[in-house]
Amino acid sequence: MSSYLRVLRHRDFRYLFAGQSASELGDRVVIVALALYITGRTGSPSDLGLVLFAQSLPLVALLLFGGVWADRMPRQRIMIATDAIRAALHGLLAALIVAGAPAIWEIVVIEVLFGAARAFFQPAYAGLIPQTVSEELIADARALTESMSNLAFLVGPVIATVLVLGVGAWEAFALDAATFAVSGLLLMRISPRRRGTPDAPAGSTMVADLRAGWREVRSRRWVWATIGVFTGSVLCVYAQWYALAPRIARDVYGSAGVFGGLEAAAGVGAVVGAVAALRWRPRRPLRTGMLMVLAWPLNDLVFALGAPLPLVAACSVAVGFGFSLFGIWWETALARLIPPGALSRVSAWDWMGSLAFLPFGYLLAGPLASAFGARTVLGAGSAIGLGLLALGLLPRETRELSYASPSSSSRAMSA
């Protein structure tokens, strides 16, 4: 609590934290609401995969450009604009559901535009957090932000399940639209501090800025190797989970609502992990985090095998706990060891690289499930993901990385 109070004394961080807490809650509601709504309406993994593909493809395609913009322009203004766009889009989707069941193509168009807006928001957000606190509080700010994000991860699926299965789906999307409006209004009150100098000279081109960001990634083996293993793991594990798990939950465990319950269980673990991060600072954070993230594909595997639900729920808690800690340690390492003027671009390369195959994973999940069975596809993907994540521990820099002082952030980490 003392760590929380210390970082919350910063006025700008308080506004950013409050706004993004609301927005994160809406996002966690929507991802589960989309899965439950499409599954309940058509029962087709292919339809759900198509909608998720539509949201993720522009996100992946435009992230790098979003990173360049965020390192060139005021990050706060980019976030306000994208919050307004996303509020309008999901407000429209809520209205279409009220007016009558929207066609799948209408949902696809809305989610394409939603994903494009998020591509510009995410790098700006990654770069703005360190501008709202002092340097020594970056890790605490990340931990507190992750705590609230994971609380949303816990509460959001429960709200989505209750709304979609008990009341109606439109309320879930209307709630998301309202949270973006709250976020935008609070962002208007922030006056971020300057942090470092722009990495790109005045008049540099978009291509030059992208190359400069890539050089920062390429010069650090711990960065590009970690991004690489997550590229394959997201394709094999994450995409298959969100496209197929609602259907498997309905067929094996009797209700698609079990999927929402398991997401909430992961949220419990994530909240505990974020709180633990305030005190637990291992000497080798990435090594510890990568080992803990191995619970992720194991969770998908036991679910695909139809294991007893209490065991699956316990594995989901472990996934949330491990991902929460890894995320905090990873983002803190980037903020401390990457030059401030290039942070948004490196964050964009991180997001784009990690999610590069996600849209195609969503798109392929339905046809693969029709050919081989949903449980077989999810189980095989989890086994591949387990192997890939284990490979992420091979680089010595990843295993031995520790947080260096900010003065060394412009140089690659040495072992």
Your description of this structure?
This protein has 415 residues and is an all-alpha fold. The chain has a single domain, classed as Up-down Bundle (Growth Hormone, Chain: A). Helices cover 80% and strands 0% of the residues. It contains 17 helices and no strands. Helix 9 packs antiparallel against helix 16 and helix 12 packs antiparallel against helix 13.
Task: Give the topology, please.
Elements (H helix, E strand, L loop, with lengths): L1 H7 L2 H32 L2 H28 L2 H25 L4 H25 L9 H30 L2 H18 L18 H13 L2 H33 L3 H21 L7 H9 L1 H10 L4 H29 L5 H13 L2 H15 L1 H18 L4 H5 L15
Structure summarized in a few sentences:
By secondary structure, the chain is an all-alpha fold. It is built from 17 helices and no strands.
| Uncertain stretches of 5 or more adjacent residues | 405-415
Biggest β-sheet, characterized? Answer: none
Give the full name of the CATH homologous superfamily.
MFS general substrate transporter like domains
**Tally of strands:** 0
Q: Overall pLDDT, averaged?
A: 83
Shape: globular
* Structural domain tally: 1
The proportion of strand residues reads: under 5%
CATH class: Mainly Alpha
Q: How much helicity do the residues have?
A: over 70%
CATH architecture: Up-down Bundle
Number of helices: 17
Q: Helix/strand-derived class?
A: mainly alpha
H and E order: HHHHHHHHHHHHHHHHH
CATH fold assignment: Growth Hormone, Chain: A
First-residue to last-residue Cα separation = 34 Å
Backbone CA Rg: 20 Å
